[in-house]
């Protein structure tokens, strides 16, 4: 038995940790994994003002996961988005009072892609966002907190990538604690008892805003409150992903699902990134309609990965 386990560990070092660390979080991840087609490794990354339910449902059976959003959950973040739109960038603008219907419809449409749906969100004040968080947790397959946005109107609120900084770690922790509490209450997981599965919580983060060591320290403080990391391996002044940064995070968060991202445009790019993550996501290459390689990798993934 030990020899079999050792062999499994050598071939699947990350899956091993997930398999043998049995807790509620891992049940969430197991449920998510069951929803993802086994041969699919490519995720649609969120693009504000673009990736809504209608956009996702154009891509049937192409992606492992589709991300919609970013959606604003409170007035401050929505005002920031209005300012961003006024200077010519796309954002999703809507009446916040109608959010419940809007998000449910978008999740339903996105599910027509055949993939589980992740909802990328931003908010300034969690107390004004609780009802909307509840709705997302009830209807989505992944709740993705945006710690990535670098638009000034958003960072001026102390959110987006600002949440990665040490001085904002307390706010990030508080927000994640509340999201987890709602999640557990919704799934009936109280007093450590598992009655149902809850929705996995992911953080969308950006590399090189702070050093990988600093980020790892800050994320270690909140590691009990998230299940996955969606990492834009942004490499300043380079046209490629920073895979060393991704590797540092992979090595430090072996029990989390990791989606790597940035500048993946081909099977080769995806294969290189998949050495350090479970999935890779793509954004701009979809806008350029560069999707043939994804169909190809879906057909061949078993050969490449397993
Ligand atoms: C037009 C556009 C809008 C984006 N909006 C969001 C967003 O709302 N939330 C987010 O987490 N990332 C957003 N991103 C970042 C992408 O998800 C992705 O991390 C980035 O584009 C790098 O991946 P790529 O090289 O495949 O494009 C956006 C990217 C683009 C191009």
Automatic annotation (TrEMBL):
It comes from the Archaea. InterPro entries: Aldolase_TIM, tRNA_dU_NifR3-rel. SUPFAM superfamilies: FMN-linked oxidoreductases (SSF51395). Gene3D superfamilies: Aldolase class I. Transmembrane segments: none annotated. This is TIM-barrel protein. The lineage of its organism: Archaea, Methanobacteriati, Methanobacteriota, Methanomada group, Methanococci.
């Amino acid at each position: 038995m030990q020899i079999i386990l050792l062999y499994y560990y050598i071939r699947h070092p990350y899956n091993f940790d997930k398999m043998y660390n049995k807790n509620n979080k891992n049940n969430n991840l197991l449920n998510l994994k069951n929803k993802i087609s086994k041969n699919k490794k490519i995720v649609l990354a969120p693009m504000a003002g673009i990736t809504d339910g209608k956009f996702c449902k154009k891509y049937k059976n192409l992606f492992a996961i589709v991300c919609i959003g970013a959606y604003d959950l409170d007035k401050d973040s929505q005002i920031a988005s209005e300012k961003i739109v006024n200077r010519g960038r796309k954002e999703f603008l809507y009446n916040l009072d109608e959010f419940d219907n809007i998000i449910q419809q978008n999740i339903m449409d996105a599910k027509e892609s055949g993939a589980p749906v992740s909802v990328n969100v931003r908010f300034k004040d969690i107390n004004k966002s609780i009802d909307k968080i509840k709705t997302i947790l009830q209807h989505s397959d992944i709740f993705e907190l945006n710690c990535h946005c670098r638009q000034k109107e958003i960072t001026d609120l102390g959110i987006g990538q600002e949440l990665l900084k040490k001085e904002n770690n307390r706010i990030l922790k508080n927000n994640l604690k509340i999201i987890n509490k709602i999640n557990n209450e919704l799934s009936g997981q109280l007093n450590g008892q598992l009655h149902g599965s809850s929705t996995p919580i992911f953080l969308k983060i950006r590399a090189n805003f702070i050093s990988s060591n600093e980020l790892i320290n800050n994320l270690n403080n909140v590691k009990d409150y998230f299940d996955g990391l969606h990492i834009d391996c942004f490499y300043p002044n380079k046209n490629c992903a920073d895979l060393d940064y991704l590797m540092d995070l992979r090595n430090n968060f072996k029990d989390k699902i990791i989606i790597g991202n940035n500048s993946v445009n081909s099977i080769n790019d995806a294969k290189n990134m998949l050495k350090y993550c479970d999935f890779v996501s793509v954004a701009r290459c979809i806008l350029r309609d560069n999707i043939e390689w994804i169909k190809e990798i879906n057909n061949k993934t078993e050969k490449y990965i397993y």
